[in-house]
Amino acid sequence: MKLTDACQDYLHYIQAIDRKAEATIASYTNDLRQYVQYMQTCKIEEVENIDYSHVQDFLEYLRQDHYDEKGQCIHKKKSSASINHMITSLHVFHRYLSMTYPKLINPVQNIRTKKAVQHLPVYFNMQDIERLLDSFRDSDAEIMDKAIVELLYGCGLRVSECCSLMLQQVYLEQGFLRVIGKGNKERMVPMHARCKKALENYLTKVRKQRYARSNFVFINAKGQEITRQYIHVMIKKRLLALGLDERLSAHSFRHSFASHLLDGGADLRVVQELLGHSDISTTQIYTHVQNKRLQSVYTSFHPRAKKHKED
């Protein structure tokens, strides 16, 4: 069986039958494209010809920088998190093939992900949040952009959740959003007054004037739904213009939402529910952020800690 055909078969399955999220499909598509390209350079066209050593060689290839004859980098090494993601993609792909075509051997069956170094989330401080929100002007584009930022930070939305938000999921009068997250899990998230005002301002002043081709909340001037790339680029440009930490991104608003709630005394289980995390351990990363910040404050201001630091 041709590897390219097997990939098309699998991608069709997760899109039409398994109904995976658009972002998940795009991620698996990208990983499998790299996998196919590597195997083709090794003159391997058939799935049956792929064995454990080929997959290991592919993963080792991803872990290194590669250059052409002119010294130009043609492939930058992947992070441990990206390698783990690739291994997961290959596992689900070959598991599907083994179940669909029982005679096929699974070459990744004994390959395991490695524990990646866990980096603490980067988040905004309140001064930067206020500076950012105060920087928006009263043009149509910036009214929409401000509403997006208010939802990302005020409701802790993922960028994909913001893009896919539909009008029927907005309960302005009650001040709630019905968010559909990963795995089509629904959760109700409240909006604070300023968040609600920014969204209402966009809906009445901007969206109502645009020719909408769908029920998506956020649409561009052509009436089409906005993309994740639009949000990421918009945020990056604004952060750059304000001279804020270059490590910050659109996803940092979600980190800030969680961290600031916990700083204010919110229960971890409530934050888990608001974020839509299935596992409490995913939410607990924000308690590590808290602990690190507490340690920093303690070291800076406790007289005995300061003295020891100076010594």
From TrEMBL:
Protein name per UniProt: Tyrosine recombinase XerC
Coiled coil (residue ranges): none
Function: Site-specific tyrosine recombinase, which acts by catalyzing the cutting and rejoining of the recombining DNA molecules. The XerC-XerD complex is essential to convert dimers of the bacterial chromosome into monomers to permit their segregation at cell division. It also contributes to the segregational stability of plasmids.
Record organism: Amedibacillus dolichus
The keyword Acyltransferase appears for this protein: no
Subcellular location as annotated: Cytoplasm
Active site residues per record: 158, 182, 251, 254, 277, 286
Cellular component GO terms held in the UniProt record: cytoplasm
Database matches in Pfam families: Phage_int_SAM_1 (PF02899), Phage_integrase (PF00589)
Domain Core-binding (CB), first and last residues per copy: 1-98
Domain Tyr recombinase: 119-299
Keywords: Cell cycle, Cell division, Chromosome partition, Cytoplasm, DNA integration, DNA recombination, DNA-binding
